[in-house]
Amino acid sequence: MGWPAVLAVGMSATIVAAFLFVPPVRGLGATTTILFFHVPPAWVAVSAWLLSLLHSVLYLRRGDLRSDRKAGVHAELGLVFCAITVVTGAIWARGTWGVYWNWDPRQTSALMLLLIYFAYVGLRGTIADPIRRARSSAAYAIFAFAGVPFLMFVVPRAFPSLHPSPIIGGGAGGGLGPAARIVFAASLAAFTGLYAWMYGIRLRLEALAGRPAHRDTALSGGLDGLVPDVGAGSEPAPTGDLAVAATLAVTRFS
Amino acid sequence: MAGPTQVVLEGVGRSYGRRLVLRGITLTIPDRSSFLAWGPNGSGKTTLLAAICGLVACTQGRVILCVDGHVLDAGGRRRQLGLVSPILGLYPQLTAEEHLELALKARGLGADRAAVRTVLGKVGLDRRRRDPVAEYSTGMAQRLKYALAIAHQPRILVLDEPFSNLDPEGAGMARAIMDDQVRRGIVVAAACDRGEWTDAHTVLSLAPA
Amino acid sequence: MRIPSCRSRPLEAAGALFVKDLRVELRSRMGWGLLAASAAGITIAASFAFGGILPDPLTAAALLWIIVLLVAMAGLPQTFVREQEQGTAWTVRLWADPAPVLAAKLCLNFLLLLGLAALIVPLYGLLFNLPLAAPAALAASVLGGCAALAASGTLLAAIAAGTGARGLLLPLLAIPLQLPPLAAAVQSTATAMTGGGGATLLPALVLLAAQTAVSGLISFMLFRYIWDEG
Prior knowledge:
B: about 30% helix, globular, C: mainly alpha
């Protein structure tokens, strides 16, 4: 019960501080405020998708369906945070460039990532058997991610962009003042905390939906390194209080 | 070639979503013997055989196939195993001859015409070998599945409902193939009716899940 | 200890599987003929909608590749959906290693897209009265574009065919990943249409080749997980 409350206070304080205490950055003017609601979710989204990829690879190596669940939840939540980024970015673009959308390289790559992970979530929804679902979605995530370095790092840097990253990220002596830096760090922490909270809830729900415990033994190493029957008992049973906790969490969340 | 040839199941189980189809099956089928799993519809016979053939992954336990003391990897399994099963489809667009050539070449084996014709003769399809499978009756299709399962002379022959759709002569052919296989290796079969095949050395009865 | 994969001949297996795939597609009633007919139909509709006149080469190239992409989304999953519905997917899994299966499907889908492009491109040029400024450059662009679409689309088609939505899921999965090769193909085709030189053509073709190679390679690494269970 404790730390969601801390999170709520922290997030509120960050919002107030972003509006009241941060002086406008040169070149961004009054739109500076939106920085604190645009960049942190973007970083969180990218981290979430990296974690999702990691768990997809782990699943294909070990066949443990818990990895698959984690990959699925990370991908889904990354989608939420990327959506925040894209929407705040479009508003910001309207403020500084005069249009909501102009196919700026970063807008393009964010949109493509959004589409890719939207497809990923859609794919998971159309396969009923957990093992087929886990294998197909892990393969899709890895296949898609092979194009992501291109989208994330080549496109934004290879083409001329109006994106103000030099102002924000331009080395240690960048354009942000001390107040802005503190608020930025607080915002990053708040968004990360929000993510962690949502992740914990979603994962518990998935674990409840995904019983009985499975293990894809064809992937778990064949003859070498196999511990007999680990899959069967290792997962916590959906005890009463866990179910209650999840229900409570959902009620509070919605 | 002194090592054992055997099929080993260690606590094999499989679930589809929340539905548990098979649970904790442990057994060993030795060389030159036959095995029959029988039970009503939905008792997991087909899943059990598919798991032995490596077509579906187990969610518990594992299947080990040994031939002459070597544990089969995926490629070895493809060459040492034959399967007759209703889940295996045939191409209506292709002829029996084309099916057999494909079955041998896809396994990385050579396909010579004479061998293909011998096998087709054995199942009584030699005269229809150039007809597309679309023109076959279900019994003829079942005979073709036998030809496809034995053409590469597997050590392990797996049969799901071995006598379905076969006329008395066809059933006799199937019995001859099974007897022949027991002399050379292993027969693993599954059927709804235990009385269909009384020669099996080991019998397992499966209850509906 | 494992049995040595004696006499395993993957190339021969891939060849036999490719011949099988081709025979099955060509002998099927609901096969490539229908795809060709719908490709022609879409091309005619596009020309009609534009009144037979296109404002500039970039529009012409973009519209052409959108038509190819649409037809590819319908055509690429066909072979996998057929295997799934005929139950022959199990048969092939039993007989063949995954790599030769994928190799055959990649070749089949590349051939399919080339065939469809060979129908669409001349028809398109005819209906829009486009001059054939640089035939070799156009051919290279079409070849490169089809290769990239087939290479990145075949694995995704296999994934889509394995879902409850069958081939219908492919556009959702494939389009975000096919935007980069699509852009490159449009660029090189537009250059070819204006008869422009290699300076703008070459980077786009290199990008298409790289996309083909990377997608193909990763497809071979991943295919066994989605095709096989064992």
